[in-house]
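Translate sequence into structure tokens.
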Amino acid sequence: MFIGRSPLRTIGVTCALTLLLLAGGCRKPRKTISQENTTDYAGNLQALVATRHLVTLRWPDFSDYQSAVTQFFNDRNFEVAWTREGKPTPQALAFIQAFQDAEAKGLNPQDYDVARWPQRLARLQATDGQAAADAISEFNVAMTINVMRYISDLRIGRVNPQHFRFGINVQSKKYDLAEFVSDNAVDAPDVPKLIASVEPDSDQYRKTEAALGRYLVLAKQQAAKPADPLPQVKKAVRLGDPYPALPQLLARLQLEGDLPADTTSSASVLDDQLSAGIRSYQHRHGIAIDGQLTPQTIKNMNVPLSERVIQLQDSLERWRWLPNEYLNAPLMVNLPEFVLHAYDADHRPAFTMKVVVGKVLGAHQTPVFAQMMKYLVFRPYWNVPYSIVKNELMPHINRSGLGYLASKNFEVTNSKGDILTSFTARQLMQGSALVRERPGPKNSLGLVKLMFPNQFSIYLHGTPATQLFDRTRRDFSHGCIRVQQPDKLAAWVLRDQQDKDGQPWDLAKVQAAMNVGPNNRTVPLNTQIPVVIFYVTGLVEDDGHVHFFDDIYGYDADLQQVLAKGPPYPMQPAPEPKPGNDDTL
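Result follows.
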């Protein structure tokens, strides 16, 4: 990414010519940028940088960037970088414009002093020597801090995802900001092009950014002509039923494109045309698609589009978190959507399937993380976590006796995996006797699990409870992710592999391995597969439409709570989560 460090451009006018001659002329004087640099700004700049707190900033505390700012000016002999002869450079003006347009990037323009640049530019017109020097020095430090904030925020996001105990590490994407800004930004021939190069190289990111631009316009239109909320109903309005606000309903469906803008209707009841628009809206919002005006549909329609803007902004923040090797991952599970997305080698959609994710209540929410899938296990055991033994199995054992376990396909082992034919309830409660579920079609993990080892002990697996995939909202697990078509997914993962006999792992072979022993058969992957367990409530789907989902875990709300406090944003990880059992369900 870096293009090499540019040479230092100036040299103080007091350098002794005699010393240069004695040195044999082996060192060429550095190029002077302009006459402005004959003025010594070093003292001013050093004093401003050393404060860690610049009162003229919207967010004065820049302690998280102070070392980078100090290094930036130190590398440039504490000379100005963003002004020439008292005037802002073209690059400075281009960045000020970028700050003004930050909302379209999903960022807050006030984080980059957008309201303060006119005053700073005006102060550069000062003619008094000291006032001019102060204005130039402050402008250069403020510009450096804000450019660094802006580039870093676009590159890795504003908040460290590990602050939320997510398993994503942004370290590999970080720039040496002092070097990057000096080498690439100060003299950038094309600032918008530079900014684009900083952002994630992902079609999905770019589509989300484009969708944000559209929804910013729609939200402003809605705010300029506010309409009353659609009246709520106690039961669904069906085809042929009256509804008191049909014109408002039509306008609402046209606003986001669920019905064409030129659609007209004089119907006094819900007709086919309006029902088709409702179906489109329901499809985009994860609501049961029945074309009826349900209470849930009306509730969603009454959400201001300004909130949809925030959802898209939060989505862009999370896309920026992803390391490059996961940015275009072949497998992505979007938790609030309850869907797994698979992509081919060119990152074109291969297929989707429904998933069941962790329960909202309790400590069962599925976390956000990225890891490499390394192996599959056919006909797995399920090693029941102690918490489930204690809280869910023991009440049944206390009522029905130890025989309850065998009746439900469980067996008991010691820590070495040896099956125990004799054990006590006390041993189970102490954890010295372990419970596991036998392989087979009734096993809670189904007939295959797909493993990408991680700190949360989360993985993909099948399930015998297939009826749950008929539900619109699918948060029923203890944290792991149940997939609707585990055989199809396993065959896709193994599509380029052969077994030890040289036979391809096609769907038939996968199904045979799932239904016939040996049990607990591990198949390593020849090539590891990046997997992202993600959380975006605003997503441009494969159909090109923008889809919105409920913030089921409150992860968006958590992010907004942190962002509302302004910089410096938390960049340190939160304490590590307590490790889970290797077979959390």
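Note: The chain has 20 helices and 16 strands.
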